[in-house]
Design a protein that fits this description.
With 175 residues, the protein is mainly α. Helices cover 60% and strands 2% of the residues. Strands 1-2 form a two-stranded antiparallel ribbon. The longest helix is centred in the N-terminal third of the chain and has 34 residues. The chain starts with a strand and ends in a 22-residue tail after the last helix.
Length: 175
Amino acid sequence: MTNTGGVAADQLRAFVERIERLEEEKKAISEDIKDVYAEAKGNGYEIAVLRTVVRLRKQDSNERMEMEALLDLYLHALGMAPSSDTNPVDDGQEDMFQSKQERAAPERNIESLMVEAKKAIIGEGKASTSFVQRRLNIGYNRAVSIMEDLEKEGFISPANYAGKRQILQGSIQPA
């Protein structure tokens, strides 16, 4: 092994050659993937949708559900949600933050929703508005209200700079 200036030249050369070999393999695999997408396109499949499916399959199911809930929320906020997902209310305006389950389900009282939210948060160790919205099958506005109430009770912390909250109480106590 040759040392030049404190560097083992043979070892360095071996690392460089391994990296180059892996780069070549990566390029070959990339070309193979491109060929598979071309074959799929030739059979009538939409490539952009296939890429999305592949990306979604890489995600954890909880992460995927949270992203889907946020996407749904954003589409509703921008008025881009399918018309079957919206429901006119008495004043003729659309309640874009109310879920289908919430519209179809009988009214649940806030106390029972708070207890359900606390159980879900403790059970999963997650304290986000979208998590509560999904878990309780409620609309965004109601989920925000519950999160605010839980924060006032001292059950969860205020959201930090990244929107994350900490669970401050490990047990469910009456309000």
